[in-house]
Amino acid sequence: QVQLVESGGGLVQAGGSLRLSCAAPESIFSIYTMGWYRQAPGQQRALVAVITSGGTTTYPDSVKGRFTISKDNAKNTVYLQMNSLKPEDTAVYYCNAAYGTSWYWGQGTQVTVSS
Q1: How many whole angstroms separate alpha carbon 35 and alpha carbon 111?
Q2: Any bridge partners for residue 73, and if so which?
Q3: Using CA atoms, how far apart are residues 21 and 72, in angstroms rounded to an integer?
Q4: Which of 29, 33, 73, 114, CA to CA, is 20 to 30 A from 100?
Q5: What would the pLDDT profile of 8-38 be if each residue is shown by its tens digit?
Q6: How many C-beta atoms surround the C-beta of residue 87 within 10 A?
């Protein structure tokens, strides 16, 4: 069973920063694409950032320049550094591991950005 363990969510003022962490099994880290998604109230889950096993990163325009995804292979941990946070960033953030049709999710961590 694949277990993704998230941490780092919380309440922050607009303009502030948070760093989310996601620990994954070593077997996942070796070949899976790791990513972060978010789901705001009344909205569908949306892509925030992805990083391939080779280290290639991708961001949507909504977060590009503000968010950075990275990983520490020694710790089997993926990070999402979120800077210049905006109220519209408020959502539950989910860690994801994907390879073909195999998709795994973390439990989700709440990020709330106050005005």
Answers
A1: 16
A2: none
A3: 10
A4: 73
A5: 999 999 999 999 999 999 998 889 999 999 9
A6: 11
